[in-house]
Amino acid sequence: MLSLLSATDVKDEVTFPHSYDRSVPEPSSYKETEVQVNESLISLLIKLHNKLSDKEGSYIPLTTRGGTIDPSNHVGGGPFFVGRLLDSICAKSGRCSQVVEAVYKDLLPKTSQDSSSLSTK
Question: Could you list the residue range(s) of the whole structural domain that residue 69 is in?
């Protein structure tokens, strides 16, 4: 014979192998800290991509490299998914793409030729 238990027949007590402290400190004990970042989310994402790739200038905007977003591809590491997020921002509109490209160009590593042309001006 098969017997089914309803939700009211089960006790509310659940035991876990480890006890977790789920207490929340009082709001008066919070220490407020303010940090001025002065960066856009786009520049932070591009810098994160560079850092995860261990290569400066590793992210190239979608419109610059002439690619498309492949929605079926779900395999990759951190740089893959950060790049994919930046690509989806580029794909939203022409204005979004222009912003990502402008930030990308500002963050490109300066070459010795660029620095020598600046010093002659």
Answer: 47-108
